[in-house]
Write a structure and sequence with these properties.
The protein contains 2 helices and no strands. The protein is mainly α and about 70 residues long.
């Protein structure tokens, strides 16, 4: 698999997870469920998915990233 294919595969998986987490958060907002264990779970999931996405993008911007492996 090429580097481009690897990037696209990983990016796609991360975007799907971030989108799913954000959608779940929006469902809770629509239902006016802005507190409690489900809200805590979903907001944590969304936060972590966003952080994984940003880490992935920042690694791609780092010219030294991935060259050691």
């Amino acid at each position: 698999m090429s580097n481009t294919d690897d990037f696209r595969f990983h990016a796609h998986a991360l975007v799907i997870d971030l989108d799913a987490a954000t959608s779940e958060m929006m469902k809770l907002i629509s239902a006016h469920e802005l507190s409690g264990p489900e809200w805590d779970r979903v907001t944590q999931w969304q936060h972590e998915a966003y952080e994984r996405w940003m880490t992935f993008l920042n690694e791609r911007d780092d010219p030294g990233a991935g060259s050691a492996g």
